[in-house]
Amino acid sequence: MDASTNVKGMLYGNKIRVPNYQRAYSWNTPSSDFNGKTHTDIFLKDLENHIKSGVATPYYFGHFLFEEKSNGNFDVIDGQQRLTTIIIFLSALFTSIKSIRNFTDDEKGFYENMIHRGANYAFSTVDYDDQFFKDYVINQTSKSKNNLETDSAKRIANAFDYFVKKLSKKENDSLDKVLQTIIWASCTTHLVKHESEAIQMFIFQNDRGKDPTKLEIIKAQFMYSIHLYGDNEADTLIEEIKNRFEKIYKSIASIEHRIDEDIVLLYTLRVYYNSLWETKSIEKINSQLNEKNPIQFIREFSQYLEDSFNALMLFFGDDEKNYFKIHSLICLDGLGVVMPFVIKAYIFSLSKEDLCRFCAAAESLILRHRLIGTRADIVSRLNDVYKEFTNENPDIEPTIERIIWMKEVKDWWWAYWNTKHLEEAINGGIEPATAKYLLWKYENYLASQGHGGYEPRRFDTIKSPELEHIAPRTPAGEEAAGYDKYDKKFVNEYIDCLGNYLLISKSHNCSIGNIPFPEKRDTYTHLFQQREIQEMTKDKKIWNKEKINERHGRIVNYIIKNL
Q: For the purposes of burial, counting CB atoms within 10 Å of the CB of 557, is it exposed (0-12), middle (13-18) or buried (19 or more)?
């Protein structure tokens, strides 16, 4: 592999893999949910713009760093996102060409030596995504995207599908130009033969197409410090760190859609130093690395990082699916102050029963804090019980008792979250996301009444949940039939309150719009709270201040007694 080469020279006859201690595929693709600029979109547009320009100079794909493992076998140390995308794009391109005509001899040679060599493959991604990569992108023996375990696998599938869709619109001549452009696109490479040199190069070079995260910076700093201070143990320590980050990145690939990796880094800092007050991860870790011999800290903290990510993989994964109280807390969101407790609970092997009891208590406190809108600091009220929750004393009970007490106490310094303030808050305006959450909880409450053994309904089973105004904001003419008079009091005090809100699916909401109440009422058949409104108005099909007050009171009573 030459230092100054092209895509053909880089791939032809070589075998390249992404080592497991590197990040899995992280480039996003335009979707129905997001149609802005993404990495794969920019990749394709840049390539097309170069072709349209008609310039004679080759397209440039940038610089790649490899560790040479053996003859013709390489680990990509930097540039893996671009290289993975090139392989995905080439496979989609060859698929599009093949759908039109047979390969020429040159094209067959390119495909067999750059993509697929019988039982061998020119490129392999991280182990936990590699079989899917081969099945979906290279061999195309599977088109199923169901039950993918990692976000990176979903991104691989989305990128391939996107490229196939875009290339399918091109004519044969256009596809030929694209293939020639990418095959002969120039790039530069740097090869190293020793792992220690590769790691040092990785530390000082980063051109992945997106800024490095704090976690990536920390990983690089750890490896660099080991080279400085590891002495005879450096290679062994490097292997240990690589193994830990292999597991960390595998966890990230499963949960990155639920939580940011740099937030987990911060939570880990709070667990390691046993304080909720830690706020600056890079600065704190750098101060430790500047100590005389930071090796012990690196080993300990990387272990904590692995444990934290593993804990959250369970929390956001199987446990969220199997334990409703965990699911309920996660749906609430805004969990920063309680997540270090959760990580500790897993590290200390707390029972699922105790973990669920804590989640229920934490949910209540966070919800009250959000509804009441106080600026009072929760951290200062919980830090002491957090510090006492240790491996030597893994008892969550004092924390639960503290939260319960905070909901009842009337002392001025602690009383911000008590029931009196809660009741005042929920009689005012509530932001939509929180209102949806409360109505979901209320739905489960209604469904459980008189139904022994009722299984609570998960939030994610309500298809595209939206917040419906039963009495719409601005009806006109016949649309206003069945509602109260839209005077100043009704508009200002009744339209945007819990009693007039209803949880509803997006399709249902779109179908009813601002129709008169009697017609709207007939559609309220899907959820228990919808049928409750039917029952409330069976004698008189009108939705007025009286009915809104009645329903508001029911919801408020539920919240006060249960949350």
A: exposed
421: three-class secondary structure by DSSP: helix
SS3 391: coil
Q: Are the CB atoms for 16 and 87 separated by under 8 Å?
A: no
The answer on pLDDT for 189 being more than 50 is: yes
- Give residues with Cβ within 8 angstroms of 310, minimum separation 6: 247, 251, 346
Distance CA 372, CA 366 (A): 10
pTM assigned to the model: 0.83
Q: Is 74 helix (H, G, I), strand (E, B) or coil?
A: strand
Characterize the bridge pairing of strands 15-17 and 73-78: parallel
Quickly state the pLDDT bin for 204 (edges 50, 70, 90). low
Helices 214-229 and 195-204 meet at what angle, rounded to 10? 140
Count the Cβ atoms, other than its own, within 10 Å of residue 291: 12
CA 475 – CA 307 distance, rounded (Å): 55
Q: Could you tell me the two tokens for 84? A: 């993975």
- Ranges of beta strands (E only) in 21-165 are 60-70, 73-78, 116-117, 120-121, 123-124
Report how far residue 338's alpha carbon sits from residue 289's, in angstroms, rounded to the nearest whole number: 28
Name 271's Cβ contacts closer than 8 Å, sequence gap at least 6: 304, 308, 340, 343, 344, 347
Q: How many Å apart are CA 506 and CA 504, to the nearest integer?
A: 7
Name the H helices within 233-372: 234-255, 261-272, 281-289, 295-316, 318-322, 324-332, 339-347, 352-372
User: Are the C-beta atoms of 464 and 411 separated by less than 8 Å?
Assistant: no
d(CA 314, CA 443): 27
In the numeric block, the tokens 């190293």 are attached to 192
CA–CA distances in Å: residue 242 to residues 205, 226, 229, 274, 361 = 18, 12, 17, 26, 38
Q: Which two tokens stand for residue 198?
A: 């590769």
Kindly state the average pLDDT of the residues 202-211. 53
